[in-house]
Design brief:
Structural class: mainly alpha
Helix content: over 70%
Order of helices and strands: HHHHHHHHHH
Number of strands: 0
Number of helices: 10
Radius of gyration: 19 Å
Strand content: under 5%
Mean pLDDT: 76
Largest sheet: none
């Protein structure tokens, strides 16, 4: 399926290609037929081979992906916590839910920022955050900044990759795993810090 989509995209004119990349980046937040990381790399790779600027495809993907995340945030806010839990197949006392609430309560937008670097998690956090009635300004800024940095980095790599798409895909996988592991370690460290601090507070009260 991925190869078929990329082959179809490769036959489009630059303007239509950018629009199609934007649509795919938007719906990645709802139902990801193709990861935004891959389409970002593909858009920049094609631009480099055709002697065009990578900025238009980058902007189309970045802005559309952020818009998709905010759309899901709004959907979560509209549906409410219980319906989102059912939608995401979470139980009311799911540990992931409690951890995210604790992270956001202590670290605010930093939790949103780091979550955008973890595949799978970044699609779940916006609707869940909306269901928790979190004010949208902080999450919007964090999502836009993290996505801009990440897709900008991928755009740079892809534009400088040369003629081999296969080599670029391999590099992208390694970079993606590295970013995901790094963000996960940071989030884990934040959770551990919260746990130790809470335990110390309980010990003092006792």
């Amino acid at each position: 399926m991925l190869t078929s989509i990329l082959d179809w995209l490769g036959g489009l004119s630059p303007g239509v290609l950018n629009a199609a990349l934007g649509v795919l980046a938007f719906i990645e937040n709802v139902f990801p037929p193709i990861p935004a990381d891959v389409i970002t790399a593909f858009g920049s790779f094609v631009a480099a081979r055709e002697g065009r600027s990578p900025i238009p495809p980058f902007l189309a993907i970045w802005l559309s992906n952020v818009a998709g995340a905010l759309f899901m945030f709004a959907m979560g806010r509209r549906l409410g916590e219980r319906r989102v839990e059912k939608w995401l197949r979470l139980s009311p006392n799911d540990p992931a839910e409690k951890r995210f609430e604790a992270l956001y309560g202590r670290f605010g937008t930093a939790a949103f920022f780091l979550s955008r670097f973890i595949p799978g998690v970044r699609a779940i956090v916006p609707p869940f955050a909306g269901a928790l009635r979190i004010k949208p300004v902080g999450p919007a800024i964090a999502i836009a900044l993290a996505s801009g940095l990440w897709y900008g980095f991928i755009t740079f790599l892809a534009f400088r990759a040369g003629e081999s798409w296969e080599t670029l895909v391999g590099l992208l996988e390694r970079v993606g795993w590295g970013a995901a592991i790094g963000a996960t370690v940071l989030l884990g460290g934040m959770l551990a810090w919260l746990y130790v601090r809470r335990k110390r507070r309980r010990a003092k009260k006792a």
